[in-house]
Amino acid sequence: MAKKWFKRSPKTPPVKNPASALTPWEAYQQQQKQAQTADKAQREPTIEHKLPRLKALRHKHLMRRLAFLLTILGLILLIAGYFVSPLSKVKLLSVTTDHQSVLSEQTVIDASGIKTTDTLVGVLLQQHTITKRLQAREPKIKAATVAVHGLRNVELQIKTYKTVGLLMRGERYYPILANGTIAKDSLTQPTNNYSVYSQFKTGNKLQQMIKQYRRLPATVRNGISEIKFAPTKINPQRVHLYMNDGNQVYATIATFAKKMQYYPSIAKEMKKKGTVNLEVGAYSYPF
User: Fold this and answer.
1) Which of 115, 165, 226, 249 could connect to 242 by a Cys-Cys bridge, CB 3.0–4.6 Å?
2) Which residues are in the Cell division protein FtsQ/DivIB C-terminal domain (predicted)?
């Protein structure tokens, strides 16, 4: 009987476990990493878990935005209501002036242009304009301040220029202020023992005379009754003074303050009332 030979199929090598090729320490580390990855996957919330939180967050943001809009709307309504209500209007308007001021309270109020129908906010925003208006309409006002007391009371605090004399025009007397400005209001008779300036025109001569006059001591100023501008061809700056003690003085504007301060000593030596000439030198002679 013939023998049959069967060809052996090659044996498939056994599949090796990758972990069997690792050292025990490396295998341990790999197991730890796999465990951490699985644990992390379990802890991460799924989309089903995230949806309720997203809805709550959106609702919270919506409520905050709504509250903000309602607050802004409420403020707008309050402001609008304030301006419509009588609380926004000026209730009381008062005037405070320095001790030397001769301005009446109503004169200052009229010059300010403020009315009780004006809003308090409008007055505060136009403080600079109001002070400029006061100074422009009333030359006696040197400085002005707008102050608010309480909720609706406005006070005008005024400082005025000092009156240094009276300018005679015709039969009227106009106050001359310390800054050289002529006030608009006039008097029929001179008051407060002010020196009267006559024959002067508003210009350089009057301004120079006022500056010279203010440099004199108060005792000398108070003794002058009238200063009359009386120029000549020889002396175009000559002034003629009438003194309260009965004497008369001739002087020059440019040297008036320098020479007039010696008048008290000259008048004391005069035995009779007369004229003192200070134009060139200083001498006197009786009437």
Assistant:
1) 226
2) 170-272
Cβ count near 165 (within 10 Å) = 26
pLDDT reading at 246 higher than 90: yes
Q: Say what the pLDDT of residue 1 is.
A: 47
Instruction: Decide: helix, strand or coil at residue 180.
Output: coil
How far is CA 190 from each of CA 99, 116, 193, 233, rounded to the nearest angstrom?
20, 37, 7, 31
Q: Which long-range contacts (CB under 8 A, 24 or more apart) does 273-280 make?
A: 273/245, 273/246, 273/247, 274/247, 274/248, 275/247, 275/248, 275/249, 275/250, 276/247, 276/248, 276/249, 276/250, 277/249, 277/250, 278/249, 278/250, 278/251, 278/252, 279/235, 279/238, 279/250, 279/251, 279/252
What mean pLDDT comes out for the span 72-82? 78
User: DSSP code of 123?
Assistant: H
User: Is the CB of residue 160 less than 8 Å from the CB of residue 97?
Assistant: yes
Strand partners, 176: 165, 182
Q: What's the rounded Cα separation, in Å, for the pair 55 and 60?
A: 9
Of the candidate ranges 11-25, 212-226, 267-281, the one whose mean pLDDT is the lowest: 11-25
Amino acid at site 277: N
**Contact indicator for 249, 275 with CB cutoff of 8 Å:** yes
Q: What Cα–Cα distance (Å) separates residue 132 from each residue in 5, 124, 201, 243, 253?
A: 132, 14, 27, 40, 34
Residue 100, number of CB atoms within 10 A of its CB: 10
Of 271, 267, 272, 273, whose CA–CA distance to 282 is shortest? 267
Beta partners for 239? 229, 251
Bridge-based pairing of strands 92-97 and 196-198 is unpaired
Angle, to 10 degrees, between the axis of helix 105-112 and the axis of helix 127-137? 120
The pLDDT assigned to 265 comes to 92
